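Annex B. Sample input.
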Amino acid sequence: MSVPIDAARKFDPARAGEYETQSRIALAGYDACHELSACMLAAALGSGGPAEILVAGAGGGAQEIVTAGPLEPGWRFTAVDPSAPMMELAVARLRETGLDGRTEIFLGTVDDLPADRRFDAATLIGVLHHLPGDDAKRAILRSLAARLKPGAPLILAGNRFAYASQPLLLAAWGQRWRMKGATPDEVEAKLSKILQGADPPHSEEAVADLLAETGFGPPTRFFSSLFWGAWLARRN
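Annex B, continued. Sample output.
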């Protein structure tokens, strides 16, 4: 997960260390989402060839790269994240899996990349709902569009409802934590935190509008889990 500098401050070393475990509870189907993201990119690009993939939000377990790398040995990755603790975890995971030699590490934001860099594809997974307001969401999507070749696919994944607008999904999300051993007080604290701590697009239509406003074509949704959705859209 990667966010611009202001939002990235909340991913301190303590939170970074628990990120992978927490993410797999918060998102039922965490691994499936990443696997299908890799499959969708391979289907869009064609399998077996070389490609340069921009991974915006690689911090944590670098799961996008760890999953896609073995599927497509010809792909090379540029991992971008402004959080040093999160990037340290990503680098360690890439070394463990032998993918560090195919990955360029970039500590910073997408805007900090050279303006003339162009990629064959990009991913933005678990980022957009951490950006407050539509202007910030448009800004990162425009930055990605500016660094993609025409027709290049973007994998976008994240939460896509205002949490309070979906009380049944919110209650089921709390039950998911209870299923994984959280006490009633812990569940209540997590529900309070999610209601206060993020600003997702308020609908799937809002996601499509953000993409249309920032240089992308209509999205195809390929994964859904409670609040979460994942889409592929191509740069115009």
